[in-house]
Design brief:
Blueprint (H helix, E strand, L loop, with lengths): L2 H9 L19 E5 L3 E6 L12 E7 L1 H11 L4 E8 L2 H13 L6 E4 L5 E7 L5 E6 L14 H5 L2 E7 L6 H16 L3 E5 L10 H12 L3 E2 L5 H4 L6 H11 L3 E5 L4 E6 L2 E6 L11 H14 L4 H16 L11 H19 L1
Parallel strand pairs: 1-4, 1-8, 2-6, 4-5, 8-9, 9-10, 10-11
Antiparallel strand pairs: 2-3, 6-7, 11-12, 12-13
Helix pairs in contact: 2-3, 2-9, 5-6, 9-10, 10-11
Length: about 350
Amino acid sequence: MDADGLARASEVVTFPIPTGPHHEMEANLPQVVTIGEILVEIMAEERGPGFREPVHLLGPFPSGAPAIFIDQVAKLGQACRIISCVGDDDFGWVNLDRLQRDGVDVSGVARLPDQVTGSAFVRYRDNGDRDFVFNIKNSACGQLRWTDTTPALLSQCGHLHVSGASLFSPEIVEMVVKAIETVKANGGTISFDPNIRKEVTRDLQVRAALAAILASCDIFLPSGEELTILTEAKMPEAAIAELLRLGVTAIVVKEGADGSTYHDAGGSLHAPGYSVEELDPTGAGDCFGATFVTCRLQGRSVEECLDYANAAGARVVTIRGPMEGTSTFTQLDELRSKFERNRRSHDH
Ligand code: ATP
Ligand code: MG
């Protein structure tokens, strides 16, 4: 599909302008934008290895790291948009319907008549590992690229979020790098969640793109080995110093059930996690990042941003389905006050 075809296809989106409860919040600038894959997730109900035998399946659930991120931003009442592609099929509908209902502007999502919406089949093993069957690169979102309509979709953007998971084609890498330049030139900010494994960084082209994105990001959101995966330094403390020297303003390290730690030139701050029963870990990192970024854009203190983000990450893992547990401020405040009460009753 050429650039023109994609531009035309994006005009056939027929979803109406959002009119839900979040609509009045759209004046709450800056607009947050993300670019990347929209997928459905279909999960095996029983644990076990892979998909080499018939299993009971649950889904389709709306998914894709950028989609989960932007849905969480919308739930917090922030104006936001996703730039992506889906097929003209039910899997695309499931996503667009959900995103739109939650307040995401989906006018930058092209519905491509000859393509199929991306999918991820996931099955958990007893030890917590996951097996996947992905259809991403060869799905509708594999057609994502910079077109004549992209600048207009970025014209209101005050903050762009990039997930490393989205950098699966040279065209998307090029689009993301161009989008970062555009948003930065307009005075906007960038967040980057690497969402990568070590093997991915062996591809030299991807590695170069990751380095460029890292160098231009304001908020870096790694977890585990991702903190040191793109740095020369191999120890966490040295890696943080290196990232700050590179120009990253803030590094927020996600630490699973332990919570998270914020680092900037002024120092570090740890916030403990919420003790919850983890039912489905998918989406934790995306909801955490979305909540931290949104709270920061709203001018909240680092301490409060970390606490809200920990609450969002904790809440989503208690609910099955990657986007089913995205949270409103009311829901996050409920969780926070429940734990605050528990903490106080322990103190007595
Ligand atoms: P993902 O698997 O989505 O990529 P991640 O590795 O990027 O996740 P995690 O550290 O697993 O990030 O989760 C992000 C945040 O969500 C954590 O920092 C924490 O606040 C919260 N969180 C995740 N898992 C749990 C848990 N089991 N209990 C409480 N909070 C959790
Ligand atoms: Mg992650």
